[in-house]
Structures are given as C-alpha cells and as structure tokens.
Amino acid sequence: MGISKSGNDDEIVTLLAGHQAAMLAFTHSLLPGDPGVKDVVQRANLVLWRKRSEYQSGTSFKSWAFRIIHWEVKAYLKESSRKSWLIVDEELTHMVVDSMLEQEEQQPLDALKASLESCLQKLNPKHQRLVTHRYFTRKTLQEFSEEVQQPVTSLKTTLGRIRIALRKCIDAQLNIQSIQKPS
C-alpha cells in the first residue's frame, strides 16, 4: 500500500473507523435480514481505501461512503441473485439511498440554522433589534437610523461587528457539536 496522492491516509483511517456503525446500519437498511451485510461493508471498506485519493477533505465522508456502499450492494445483489431466491426491488433501493443521502446533506444545514438562532439569542436586545430590522424587514437602514437617531455609518459598523461575533459564535458551536458527535 503506497501513500495516497492527497496524503490523507491518517484522515481516511480516522473517518473509516468513526463511520463503521453508520455504514453497517446503512447497509442493513439496504439488505434487511441478509447475512452478507458485513461482507458488503468489508468490500466497501476496501473500495474506500483503494479510492482514498479521490476523497476531498472537508466534504461529507458519510455521503461518499454511502454511495460506494450503494454500488457494493448492487454488485452483491447481482452476484447473489444467481445463487439465491432473494429479490430486492431496485427502485425501492434507489429511494432508500436517495432519502438517506438527502437527509445526510440536510443535517449540516439544520445544525447551522440552530447555531445561528442560538447565537442571535445571545445578542443584547439593541443588537437583536438592529439585526431583525436589517435582515427581516423591508425598511431601509436609513429609516432605522432615523428611528434610533444614530448615523447610518455607525449602524453599518455595528452590523459588521455583529456579523463577526455571530460567525465566531456559530463556529464555536459547530466545533463543539463536531467534537461531541463524529461527522
């Protein structure tokens, strides 16, 4: 086994180890009650390792792994159909795969939204009002400026600082979540 072109072997080993339970559960959902589930996961692990140079760090490893498992399940079913009476509806399999991949892609957005809402609650009421006005009403900043009797430039500066604070708060919350739960 040589070193991968991308030099991410340690990362791949960590991701593979951290996702075995999810990969096994996903394979069980595609092959319910089939005794070959562990074999399919093992074959998928080998494919993932062989294709490790194709993985782009920072992307969803789970989605990448699930796609490979999907192809391994198809190969397994084709191979076992010659030996067995088990019949699995291909359309149903595609629906399960699509649903699980869609859910996987939605989870980061849900976490981001929850973090944003939490961080907005931490702002002082004056800053909450400014953010609400700026992003959730159709009024101009000039109109708000007249309401609160502050210069527009001052409000723009404050908004910039608030955005930086929100970004830091969101990043901190997402980092805490990623430490508590493997990606």
Automatic annotation (TrEMBL):
Keyword terms, alphabetized: Sigma factor, Transcription, Transcription regulation
Pfam families in the record: Sigma70_r2
Keyword Transcription regulation applies: yes
Keyword Ribosomal protein: no
Stretches assigned to the RNA polymerase sigma-70 region domain: 19-82
Family designation: Belongs to the sigma-70 factor family. ECF subfamily.
Name by which UniProt lists this protein: Sigma-70 family RNA polymerase sigma factor
Organism encoding this protein: Rubritalea tangerina
